[in-house]
Amino acid sequence: MEDYWPVIVLTFVGFISLAALLLVPVWKFLGKEEEAADRFNKFVDGNSVVQPEESGHSEAFSSESTATTEESG
After folding, report:
1. Whole-Å CA distances, 18 to 8, 21, 25, 59
2. What is the DSSP letter of 55?
3. Which residues contact 55 (CB under 8 A, 6 or more apart)?
4. pLDDT tens-digit readout, 5-64
5. Which residue intervals of the chain are DSSP H helices?
6. Would the pTM of this model clear 0.70, i.e. be above it?
7. What's the gap between Cα 1 and its chain centre?
8. Taking a C-beta distance cutoff of 8 angstroms, is the pair 59, 65 a contact?
9. Where are the domains of the chain?
């Protein structure tokens, strides 16, 4: 049983190393993208951009106005 411990430890260390090797660049990339999104949001908020309505769509696309136009036509 003592012969298995070096294999177990090396496998564990190798797995952790491989995971770090693959995930650290992704983590850095996502951090840069979050910073870029924050800069973009500050830029948009600083300019006079028309904000969408609270409902998320205009009255022309509501189901009530469509129903009334179909009945009258």
Report:
1. 15, 5, 12, 54
2. T
3. 62
4. 999 999 999 999 999 999 999 999 999 999 999 999 988 887 755 555 665 555 555 555
5. 5-46, 63-72
6. no
7. 47
8. yes
9. 1-46
